[in-house]
Amino acid sequence: METNDSTLIEVLQTLEQIKLVNERLAFHRSFEESDTNAIHNFERLKANFLSQLAILLNEFDVKLNLPIAA
User: Fold this and answer.
1) How many whole angstroms separate alpha carbon 17 and alpha carbon 21?
2) Do the beta carbons of residue 18 and residue 56 sit within 8 Å?
3) How far is the C-alpha of 43 from the C-alpha of 36, rounded, in Å?
4) How far from 63 is each of 21, 22, 35, 66, CA to CA, in Å?
5) Cα-atom radius of gyration of the chain, to the nearest Å?
6) Using one digit for the tens of pLDDT, what is the confidence trace for 15-68?
7) How far from chain centre, in Å, is Cα 21?
8) Which of 2, 20, 26, 55 has the smallest C-beta neighbourhood within 10 Å, fewest atoms?
């Protein structure tokens, strides 16, 4: 059960990271002249976190089909 407990913690941490990235994306998109480079970097970071989340959930036999574009 220890592996599942540590994996659960990783899942929660990854979800928290995704939430923070979403907040930063919303912030950067809120400007009339948004920073497209920052937006692109945060979208890539979000995609990485989503991939990480899918791998972690796979340990619980949960399969996700996540879109590439965040």
Assistant:
1) 6
2) no
3) 10
4) 23, 23, 34, 10
5) 14
6) 999 999 999 999 999 999 989 999 999 999 999 999 999 999 999 999 888 765
7) 7
8) 2
- DSSP state, residue 31: S
Q: Which residue has the tokens 């950067």?
A: 28
Distance (Å, whole) CA 62 – CA 13: 18
Confidence class for position 1, pLDDT limits 50, 70, 90: low
Domain ranges of the chain: 2-58
Could you give the CA distance from residue 25 to residue 18 in angstroms, rounded to a whole number?
10
In single-letter form, the type of residue at position 6 comes to S
